[in-house]
Amino acid sequence: MRIQAALVESTGGPFTVHDVHIEEPRPDEILVRITAAGICNTDLSTRQIWPQPRLPMVFGHEGAGVVEAVGTAVTTVVPGDTVCLSYRSCGACGNCTSARSAYCEAGINALNATGTRSDGSTPLSRDGEPVFGNFFGQSSFASYAIAYESNCVKIPADLAPVLAAPLGCGVQTGAGTVLNVLQPAAGSSLVVFGAGGVGLSAVMAAVSEGCSVVAVDPVASRRAVARDLGAVAALDPRDVDDVAAAVRDITSGGPHHAIDTTGQPIVISQAIAALRHRGALALVGIGKSAEIDIMTVIRKGIQLRGVIEGDAVPHEFIPRLITLHEQGKLPLEKLITPYPFSEIEAAARAAAAGEVIKPVLTFS
């Protein structure tokens, strides 16, 4: 079947929309007509380093849509179901069977970030030549995508696609870090470093739990949204001499919890310095390495926790997020800027420049 897909044809190159061919679903696959797809920083950063031998490539891992067809082995969804797409997992390893599928032992990279199916094939092609995809088991920067039972979550048909799409990664990661990992008590304090889509999702979740939340971000518009979402303070790190001290002052001795969404060593150090004794730091942002003051960590009894996808099992957590939105506790619409699919590169540039928080592509 001929579809439209946004291709990246060179490492670090732009998204350009082309006609490509998609195969019919195999027995374990699900063909989804995409109605909306969020743009995540992971899409933007990964295209900068994606290797030339695996190009052209279709990214996109926050898809929402309608099931068009299913393989003969699929039992969890049927054509016509409205779905949200998330990360893929094997479903059989020890972590998957103990509700820890974000740490799938089959390898999150192997199932989500190779550009191919497990057997090395790809369901996409152009003029008879392979187009790589299967990103997070979906590659949803396209009018249709192949997905799997592990990452295809049935959702209410009346949920707007632009709200549904970001649930599968960015919102799940930020909110899940609060609700599944840190689990802060009402009245406790929490600081979020980086007020992008993930960070602001964490702000929303923490406010819904009755926490006193501080956001730290250099972008004024993002700080304004954080305050609108209920943060008691939003700091520009460039305006204070000592970020950690400023956070400690606001939180009367230091926050109980901190989340880093930046992956920047200096920010991680600020988070550790800001925390009160026996505080907990969740590391969400992807970075290569960071020097940590081990004596401070030991002396203060700080807990460090790496987090992938908010420790969320999508089939369980995405319905919970939808309920929170219905209750008015997760006002996702305050983060989202819709763009037509044809303007994907403009949307990506706006996101990279910090002009928008969560661009979501819409499909006619």
UniProtKB/TrEMBL annotation:
Cofactor requirement: Zn(2+)
Domain of life: Bacteria
Keywords noted in UniProt: Metal-binding, Oxidoreductase, Zinc
Keyword match Zinc: yes
Tagged with keyword ATP-binding: no
Family matches, as Gene3D superfamilies: Medium-chain alcohol dehydrogenases, catalytic domain, NAD(P)-binding Rossmann-like Domain
InterPro entries reported for this sequence: ADH-like_C, ADH-like_N, ADH_Zn_CS, ER, GroES-like_sf, NAD(P)-bd_dom_sf
Record domain Enoyl reductase (ER): where: 12-361
SUPFAM superfamilies: GroES-like, NAD(P)-binding Rossmann-fold domains
Family: Belongs to the zinc-containing alcohol dehydrogenase family.
Protein name, per record: NAD(P)-dependent alcohol dehydrogenase
Annotated organism of origin: Streptomyces sirii
